[in-house]
Amino acid sequence: MAKPKSKKSMTYKQLKRAGSRIKPYADSDRDGVINKKDCRPFDPKKQGRLHDFAMARLRAKEQKLENARIRLTKKLETQRETLNMKRAVRNKKLSISQIRLKRKQVLIDEIKREKAKFQKLSLANKQAKRELFSHSAMGKASAASQKTLDATRVFLNKPSTKKAISRFNARVQYLIS
Asked: What is the CA radius of gyration of the chain?
């Protein structure tokens, strides 16, 4: 005699033929598939073919979504790297422009110092001339005034002073333009 099958291993049709009073639209094993479509109505681990196909379709969709997520993650990472590179370039450009501004400010400060020095020399020259002419008019030329005037003339006639004045004028023209 053949060994009787357990209810767990029997299909819906086998259970109906065996005289079991199984309800076709109930879910005896509580697996989410009604008994009529369940290949093993009392086995919660086994569902019907339709359920298996649906699960295969879900797995395929999940795989597709996972591939899309990976692709988008790579794209996002690439965009982040590009953005970081652009930021680095922008920061470098910014630092270059800041260096240029600092250099320009240094030139401006140097020009101001040279201008102030030049103005002091011009003022000393004018004062020495005034003293010289005022004393010479009276016939009492001051030796100190004469020395100051001579020193100012010598300084202004030096090639280095002339170069400094021409550099000053060139820098002023550069900054104006």
From this structure: 51
